[in-house]
Amino acid sequence: MTTLYLRELEIAQLAVQRAAQLTKRVFHETAKGTVSKDDASPVTIGDFGAQALIIAALRHNFPADAVVAEEEAAPLRADPALRDRIWELVRSTKLEDVGAEGLLGGGVRDVDAMLEVIDRGGSKGGRVGRVWAIDPIDGTKGFLRGGQYAVCLGLLVDGDVKVGVLGCPNLPVDDAAPLTADIGANQTDDEGRGVLFSAVVGQGATSRPLGPGALKEGKKIAMKAVTDMASASFCESVEAGHSNQSDSAQIAQKLGITKPSVRMDSQAKYGSIARGAGDIYLRLPTSKTYQEKIWDHAAGDLIVREAGGQVTDTTGARLDFGVGRTLANNKGVVAAPAAVHGQVIKAVREVLKL
Ligand SMILES: Nc1ncnc2c1ncn2[C@@H]1O[C@H](COP(=O)(O)OS(=O)(=O)O)[C@@H](OP(=O)(O)O)[C@H]1O
Ligand SMILES: [Mg+2]
């Protein structure tokens, strides 16, 4: 058995598990109304806190690696009250498993170290060397709405994704659960929810319960074969501003898909199709200028490909993670089982006139 990237995988899984513990604390405060949904701060607190914990774990284990992450600490330097709330969460979020917490280096030393570590995510990325891509809370709108969100971490080596980990605290643990963005009425109860998807290049993709205890052995996941397009299910963004929902409806019609789309926030969509809960993920450009961010796709791209899928842009080209912080060479995303991906791309190109 190959052990390539084994250590990177273990650290990435634990780092995502710990960061998700922090985001869950913030999520439940928001759901309970302790923090106002109109206030932008819950997501800010969750984003900064999770980013600090993940980068601290990476710096402890792989100090020479570059990091591309969404946030920078400037707003916290200007707002001591916000900084202190985040520090309180970062300081007090630890893995239950003392050995695992030790592997991550035991957190962040003090509030100045926290600011310093948050600012370590400014790498330009690129085609050379090892670069970690972090989205501390992907699907911020879903997070605020009480829906799906994901803590995302991918390792790029010379521009290719080698390791991908997605923590999805609000997806069902059960890989066979039907595809739905709904997490049920009782949002303060984590029972049956929380899944960690992982993949290493050439070694397949797995899912396991996200925690809070020790991480269980992963189960191999695989995309479902689509034998009949009429019964295929596809997912897309909740936000119409993130993916063109009228184009996707036309594409679905062309393909003969009869079910309405499942609208779900975040890279939980990639994880869901990778485990066969859904079949196709369409992300269709809404503007000529928007460039997708590498941290919104790196982990999901590898997890779907390792589960037997193909992930490309709308023209059928592979996503190019080697050109910087954005996917400047690609427009949109089309993810589907390898056997039907060509058929889906044909329909996409016809509708988008590419
Ligand atoms: N115009 C436009 N087009 C495409 N994508 C955009 C656009 N604007 C933002 N974003 C990015 O979308 C990320 C959220 O992903 P999803 O659209 O899958 O989920 S959601 O339904 O919007 O929550 C979201 O990630 P987060 O900011 O981490 O939530 C953004 O990076
Ligand atoms: Mg994102």
From TrEMBL:
Q: Which domain of life is it from?
A: Eukaryota
- GO MF: 3'(2'),5'-bisphosphate nucleotidase activity; metal ion binding
* Entry's Gene Ontology BP terms: inositol phosphate metabolic process; phosphatidylinositol phosphate biosynthetic process; sulfate assimilation; tRNA decay
Its biological purpose is as follows: Converts adenosine 3'-phosphate 5'-phosphosulfate (PAPS) to adenosine 5'-phosphosulfate (APS) and 3'(2')-phosphoadenosine 5'-phosphate (PAP) to AMP.
Catalysed reaction, written as an equation: adenosine 2',5'-bisphosphate + H2O = AMP + phosphate; adenosine 3',5'-bisphosphate + H2O = AMP + phosphate; 3'-phosphoadenylyl sulfate + H2O = adenosine 5'-phosphosulfate + phosphate
Provide the taxonomic classification: Eukaryota, Fungi, Dikarya, Ascomycota, Pezizomycotina
Q: List the NCBIfam families hit by this protein, alphabetically.
A: bisphos_HAL2 (TIGR01330)
Task: Please list the cofactors this protein needs.
Answer: Mg(2+)
Q: Does the keyword Oxidoreductase apply?
A: no
Q: What is this protein called?
A: 3'(2'),5'-bisphosphate nucleotidase
Pfam families registered for this protein in UniProt = Inositol_P
Task: Please list the residues that bind Mg(2+).
Answer: E70, D135, I137, D138, D296
Which E.C. number(s) belong to this protein?
Answer: 3.1.3.7
Organism, scientific name: Trichocladium antarcticum
Q: Name the UniProt key words of this record, in alphabetical order.
A: Hydrolase, Magnesium, Metal-binding
Entries under Gene3D superfamilies matching the protein: 3.40.190.80, Fructose-1,6-Bisphosphatase, subunit A, domain 1
Member of which family? Belongs to the inositol monophosphatase superfamily.
Which top-level enzyme class is recorded in the Swiss-Prot or TrEMBL entry? hydrolase
